[in-house]
What we know:
Blueprint: E1 9-12, E2 18-23, E3 29-36, H1 50-57, H2 69-76, E4 80-85, E5 90-97, H3 101-118, H4 121-140, H5 147-155, H6 170-175, H7 178-188, E6 194-200, H8 204-214, E7 240-246, E8 252-259, H9 266-278, H10 284-291, E9 296-304, E10 311-319, H11 325-341, H12 346-363, H13 367-381, H14 390-395, H15 399-409, E11 415-422, H16 431-434, E12 451-454
Parallel strand pairs: 2-6, 7-11
Antiparallel strand pairs: 1-2, 3-5, 3-6, 4-5, 8-10, 8-11, 9-10, 9-12
Helix pairs in contact: 1-4, 3-8, 9-12, 9-15, 10-11, 11-15
Amino acid sequence: MPVQVVPFTDERLPNGLRLVISEDHLVPVVAVNVWYDVGSKHEQPGRTGFAHLFEHVMFQGSRHVAKAEHIALVQAAGGTFNGTTWLDRTNYFETMPSHQLELALWLEADRLATLLDALSQENLDNQRAVVKNEKRVNYDNQPYGTWQEKLWGHLYPPDHPYHHPTIGSMEDLDAASLEDVGAFFRTWYAPNNAVLSIVGDVDPARARAWVEQYFGPIPANPAIPPFAVDPLPMTLGGERRETVEDRVPLTRIYAAYRAPAIRDERLYALEIAAQVLAGGKGSRLHRRLVREGRIAQDVAIFLLPLASGPSVFIGWATVRPDATREAVEAAFLEEIARLAAEDVTEDELLRAKALIETDELGSLQRVSERADRLSMYATLLDEPDEINRQLDRYLAVTAADVRAACAALLVEHNRVVLAYVPASGAATEGAEDAADEENDGPGGPLEDGMTEAQA
């Protein structure tokens, strides 16, 4: 059955705001999605965590919207909202009944234009405390919660913008003044550094008029700093290992590899590889480690595509209490190595593509997902029409493509192996019981924007 093309218009306002509109009158719902081309990669040494901090501050009021009123207005109108921060971007989004589109646009425009009017020392201190508590809950006091920070530290050198985690340094946030935070906002939060996507039950002419009315008067920033980073080698040049004794219930092995940045066709082959390895209960790793071998509690493999440096191909396996770390690690790495040594079977290739196709088509049924993807492709690739090309790129991957990509990248000299082991007395009483159930969660904070094949 042919895949429905997502129609859209793509234009820029005189102040540089990129506006993408896609009509879909199936249900009376509309999604508004704003991507700002600023993420943790844009932060300077000593100023980390600012991008994520602003994700919180953006809901604390503006000139015409009181503290927390943005949230109250959206909810009272029957809508939903959120915001996320990642290495490459920050985004904000609402899904509303279609007759409430104007409200969502006004709210987004008002905080872009006038957020600093409401930013006080009290608000800054309050949100700084919220972020610090988030770090304690999701990173410091979460089993395996520091895996991402530790792996990133091995995959990217200290001077690379992907080296530090998105949540940033608490010391840097403590040292941030109101003037520092204001300067960050004035630099990056500008219409010419943003993409606004509107998808759903929308009248394009009316939506365009509202966007011009509310966003049009906001001045551009002609001095947005250019972003460039020296390229890293595609491979690490040698295996790196670290063992972490921590308060974890079970030993867990992580393996991570550098992968190409977005635009590289090999990423599609690596997505297929991730599905072959850990895409559901019929995958290789699930069969060998979980279902038949019964040496692992769970397994996961996923690819994190990134725009300004090597992406990351990463996976983990949690060791059952009656198994050994060595046995799980050996089997886990052997299955990854097999992809470089021999072609996947036709059945495996078809199964992996079917899983990806199901996920892609299911995601695109939601107006919120379409809006997010249009903003993403416009921001990172300057090609919103990639929304209509991605599935074909996956379906075109051959077994030879998978083997070639894995042979070049999923190799020992491009590998980081991280092992979490229970510290003395740290294993929880429930570890034995946990071995009888599959853990579908990552055991740590997964940022938005990930593609995951998890069993």
